[in-house]
Amino acid sequence: MVKEIERAGIPVVHVCTVTPISMTVGANRIVPAIAIPHPLGNPALTLEEEKDIRRKLLKKAFRALTTEIEDQTIFE
After folding, report:
1. Which of 14, 29, 44, 49 has the smallest C-beta neighbourhood within 10 Å, fewest atoms?
2. pLDDT tens-digit profile of 62-73?
């Protein structure tokens, strides 16, 4: 699905916990997530810490979305 959307000219960021799988399926812009059971956060943290983690992840995804790339790229 990611490759077809990009083929239509729309850049896509794949946020995932297992980056080798993203590489295998052909995602071009990959942002590593937090953990398998909670990819976009950590329920053990306070609400403010949780918001901070999500904000940083979202900013990283936006940066990946606006970055010109030639090959598959993992944005650490």
Report:
1. 44
2. 999 999 999 999
CB 2 within 8 A of CB 27: yes
Q: From CA 44, how far away is CA 22, in angstroms rounded?
A: 27
Q: Is the pLDDT of residue 7 over 90?
A: no
| 64: DSSP letter | H
3-state SS assignment for residue 37: coil
Q: Which helix (H) or strand (E) holds 40?
A: none
Residue with tokens 């992840």: 57
pTM (2 d.p.): 0.88
User: Which two tokens mark 14?
Assistant: 């794949």
Report domain extents, the chain: 2-74
